[in-house]
Design goal:
Structural class: alpha+beta
Radius of gyration: 17 Å
Number of domains: 1
Mean pLDDT: 96
Distance between the termini: 43 Å
Bound molecules: magnesium ion
Largest sheet: 5 strands, antiparallel
Number of strands: 15
Helix content: 25-40%
Strand order of the largest sheet: 8-7-9-14-15
Oligomer: single chain
CATH class: Alpha Beta
Length: about 270
């Protein structure tokens, strides 16, 4: 996938449009979260998401992108990312990464959350917690004066402290009028290396962390990425604007986590 070479610094007006798109993704994922339970299929989740996106005056950002057939990427268990929704019911103990993109007012939003289906093993819950913390630590580095390598270093070192594998072949990216813009944002790296972060850069930061080894392969469907050792993998993604002192996080997990909290208390 080509990211282009030019980094597009966004104006404040463009940032606000990106915020609208990014927040719509979070709301879509919350609607999906309401439906996640054993027995539901990822195709059913995809249909709910597509309807919600269109009802809110936006287009699914992934559908037709590079020929991708659906509105969501749904990656279950050992699938890392780019899973195609299908009619296999989710089972108790599964995890599913749901990655969603929308296009509204000419700008993309792109965010992902990994959900537990029913009760999951404690080591898998640990993977989810660590991957989400990797994202938070990575976002802490997305400030003026740091470099792309600082983001990757923060993510990689935290994941590896816990013995987890950091996927190398797939990376985060710039975001704007294109779903994938420069620069690439690897989830591994060295402090002080790579392109300098500038005020107004918009980045989709998306750790993909494996319970086992870092190696992956492509499934025969041409899309799905799977761990080589077939152990589970987690994925969380936020869209952020690089600013002085602190990144401005455009997307939100708040609605998703309200749903999850409510469902736990039922
Ligand atoms: Mg995404
Ligand atoms: Mg992305």
């Amino acid at each position: 996938m080509g990211f282009g070479r030019r980094v597009h610094i966004k104006t404040d007006e463009e940032v606000e449009l990106l915020r609208v798109s990014s927040l719509l993704v979070g709301k879509t994922l919350a609607v999906v979260a309401e439906r996640i339970r054993p027995g539901v299929t990822t195709l059913q989740l995809d249909a709910v998401a597509e309807e919600f996106i269109r009802d809110h005056g936006a287009e699914p950002g992934f559908k037709g992108y590079g020929g991708f057939p659906n509105s969501l990427c749904t990656s279950v268990n050992e699938s890392v990312v780019h899973g195609i929704p299908n009619d296999r019911p989710l089972e108790d103990g599964d995890i599913v990464s749901v990655d969603c993109g929308v296009l509204k007012n000419g700008f993309y939003g792109d965010s992902a959350y990994t959900f537990a289906v029913g009760d999951i093993a404690s080591e898998v819950q640990k993977l989810l917690d660590v991957t989400k913390e990797c994202l938070r630590l990575a976002i802490e580095q997305a400030v003026v004066g740091k470099r792309i390598g600082d983001i990757g270093f923060a993510c990689q070192s935290y994941a590896e402290q816990h013995g987890f594998g950091v996927v190398r072949e797939l990376v985060g990216h710039g975001l704007g009028r294109e779903l994938h813009e420069a620069p690439e944002v690897p989830n591994y790296g060295r402090r002080g290396n790579g392109p300098r972060l500038m005020d107004g850069m918009v980045l989709a930061i998306e750790p993909m962390i494996n319970l086992g080894r870092k190696e992956i392969f492509h499934e025969d469907d041409g899309w799905t990425i799977v761990t080589a050792d077939r152990k589970v993998s987690a994925h969380f993604e936020h869209d952020v604007v690089v600013r002085k002192n602190q990144a401005d996080v455009l997307s939100s997990f708040n609605e998703i986590e309200e749903v999850l909290k409510k469902n736990r208390n039922v």
